[in-house]
Each structure stands twice: as C-alpha cells, then as structure tokens.
Write a structure and sequence with these properties.
single chain; 4-stranded mixed β-sheet; 2 helices
C-alpha cells in the first residue's frame, strides 16, 4: 500500500492531499450553484455531520466535499503536514 498523506476534514473524515485542487468559502452565489450542480451529478460528499458548511473542498477527480471545518483551519492543517 502506498503512503498517501491525508487531510482531516472533520469528524474522522479525510481526503488525500495530492487530490485537492482548492479549498473555498461556501458563501458566494457561484459557489452555491457549483455545489448544487455537483449534488445533482452525484459528485458531492457531505462530511459536515449536519453542521454548518464552512468550506468546500474540490478534488481532482470531479468530486466535491463539504466540510464543517473553516478554510483557514484546513489551510493551517495543510501547512503543518
């Protein structure tokens, strides 16, 4: 098994760091439309466990992940790796 660096996005959920394209704020209308489109295409993973969405993690394989952890906190976790 190859060593893949994982980023904890909250509640025991992780994504592979090398697959991350961007981590963005969920507040703007274009991002909300993007998330809605991904949901309709069955390419959205909600990892918030019912909490407020604080960041949207876009992965290289067209999958988008919603996280309850803020963009700043996820970025800090990435910089500490």
């Amino acid at each position: 098994m190859s060593n893949k660096i994982l980023l904890n996005i909250g509640f025991g959920n992780s994504v592979i760091v090398s697959k991350i394209v961007s981590i963005i704020q969920p507040n703007s209308a274009p991002v909300k439309r993007f998330v809605k489109k991904k949901d309709s295409e069955n390419l959205l993973i909600d990892a918030t466990m019912g909490k407020k969405v604080r960041s949207v993690v876009v992965l290289a394989d067209s999958i988008t992940v919603l996280s309850a952890i803020s963009v700043q906190a996820l970025t800090a976790r990435l910089e500490n790796e």
